[in-house]
Amino acid sequence: MTFQTADLTSMQFCFAVRNVI
User: What is the DSSP letter of 3?
Assistant: First the structure.
């Protein structure tokens, strides 16, 4: 499995969610 863009997206999503909370 390739974790290039998925990893970045996941990290960004988590960061955004944590920032909102």
Answer: -
CA distance readout (Å), 7 to 1, 2: 11, 9
Instruction: Please give the span between the terminal C-alpha atoms of the chain, in angstroms, as a whole number.
Output: 31
- Structure confidence by residue, pLDDT tens digits, 1-21: 455 666 778 888 888 888 887
The type of residue at 14 is C
Helix (H, G, I), strand (E, B) or coil at 4: coil
